[in-house]
Write a structure and sequence with these properties.
By secondary structure, the chain is α/β, with parallel strands linked by helices. It has 11 helices and 13 strands.
Amino acid sequence: MTEAKVHPKITVIILTWNRVDDVVTCLETFSEVDYPNLEVVVVDNASADNTVETIRERFPWTTLIVNDDNLGYVGGNNVGIRYALGADADYVFILNSDTKMTPNVLEELLGVIQSDPKIAIVGAKNLYLENPDYTWGKYGVLDWGPMLVRTVGRFQRDTPSESPKDVDWIIGNGCMMSREALERVGLFDEEFFQVNEDVDWCIRARKLGYRAVYVDTAAIHHKGASSADLTKPVVFSYGYFLGRNAILFARKHANPLQWIWLLFMVFFGLAARIAFHATYATLQTIGGQSHFAKGLIDGFAGRLRRELITIKMPVANPNPPDHAIARFLRWIGV
């Protein structure tokens, strides 16, 4: 048996944009991966930082593609996929730059996707990078809800799930796609630019009779929302694309009843988010003025309460909130 049959070629595609620290951390974790027929392709989406120079200097074993313009998450990954197919990849593994690899994720996914030619895509569990006892997410459900879809396991404590399992859609990072499916289904729809392109691709594949399968025994570590990091001077507007692409997706796939339900739910979610943020801001404002009000009272009373001299700041909880209220807020998009 030839090496290509025992170890088919896997091309990993890592898209990056102005996140040199993230992509360096991601590439460093490939030292733990020993799959013998692997090519790692980094696609740079016209970064303004020193990403390109750093990758050329520190990771010469990668294939670096530098786009002249920011093509978005979809267009940038499609550049990598086109390269992979042209370079005879048997499978394409899409990996976000704000992730860390695990040693066995490729073999775990490969074993499942090779078990049935009707499996177009397999997805790994996304462990929360800051606390791997929790999952950033596992797989997706198309529920036509306030955010169109729901991510199962979103910031919930990691517990074993049924696996392998057919699902509505696979989270578009840490996912492996077969060459045959890519050639038949096509690439990501570039009209989405970013957000829900993975949902669209999985639905298109399933309409052609393919399967989308979640593999709980395969895992990556995922930071999440790196391109929307509010400490950076320029970030992507996820809110804009979540709204825009829900409608774009419905225009492609919804029947009349799904349209009605989606419109009801997105406007319900919009109203709920406005009400939540307004209430929260009001309570924060009132709470922020409580010390001033107590000071006025003590000024008139001519006293000093020593317990009010200092303020004890809250200690950040390293665990993401995992309770019913937190899940509801995530469902409506807060």
